[in-house]
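for the writeup, i need someone to sanity check this before i put it in the appendix. the sequnce is what the collaborator sent (i think, or maybe the updated version? ugh). structure was predicted straight from it, no edits. if anything looks off just tell me and ill rerun, i have time this weekend
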Amino acid sequence: MKNFQLKNPTKIIFGKDQLSKMAAEIPKDSKVLMLYGGGSIKKNGIYDNVKAAMEGFEIEEFGGIPANPEYDILLQALKVIKEKDITFLLSVGGGSVIDGTKFLSAAALFEGDEPWDILTKSKRTMTGMPFGTVLTLPATGSEMNSGAVITRKETKEKRTMGGPGLFPEFSVLDPEVIKSIPKRQLANGLADSFTHVTEQYLTYPVGALLQDRFAESILQTLVDIAPKIMEEDFNYEAASNFMWCCTMALNGLINKGVPSDWATHMMGHELTALYGIDHARTLAIIAGNHYTHNFDDKKEKLAQYAERVWDVREGTTEEKARIGITKTTEFYQSLGIDTKLSAYTESYDGTAEIISKRFEERGWMKLGERQNVSPSDVEEIVKMSY
């Protein structure tokens, strides 16, 4: 097992009817900016419940943060922060709204001329404006980590950021919100959280026995509850486990002491930037082909995964590993997610070359857990995904 440090300061407030406890987590003299997305929270009652819980606070609002938080829109929110002397941010939404809030947390204290530099030049954000979250869509784990992904439509880029200063002060997780989430988004959440785990698990063995079991338990739970989540009838028990799996998949615990990959995510981000494909669906497009292309590096963990998550008991290491890849693709497909780029766009010719060139231009020459996935490998993997 590798050396590591672990600190996660986010307070989780989990369960039914917990919004009333949120106010105690915010300094009383705060001037709050409430951030949200397209307005669904005003239809499902979450908006009214949050406003009731925040009675007594001075609150400004900024809505309209899109599914891939757009830089230019976030700059409009940043202007509100500056003009209204905001001191605390409250994100009410899913991962995209929370990610946008993290960018604003950093940008509010940024001293440079171009906030985009936070995503392209700054290595780690050490300080940010304090913020909390009310999670309305389980998927990304952003409610309990310090990372974010921001889109810039103008340049068709999707870039990552993060650092110790960007952990939420608190996050309210009420599984009841799943009642109002469309099935497509629930499928995305299942696929996204599943892939978050595999990015930290399907690498190579380092003797981190407990970490492997943590990861496998999340994967097993997601596989078990997925059919119940996708049913029409709401199941609170399944919803609770789903929400907590999404949080645990990317809160920093399961990646400690082990190698991580993230190449699937980096390729997937480019598909979203180029074609607007849902983030989780880009992961489903890339993942199996990434594992296949890098089979020799990953086969030991793929075989272990097949045994422990999918109960594959027969065959050689290579045979089990191949079945593990097939089972992963079948899991995405069981959620109604297409796993080929051609299902989302007819203009896929040349995509691999574009993405490979972008990676070269950014200096992303060594991806993956072994730092041996080059832009030429990326080009081949994306072509396999057509």
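Residues 183 and 231 are 9 Å apart (CA to CA). The mean pLDDT is 96.
thx in advance!!
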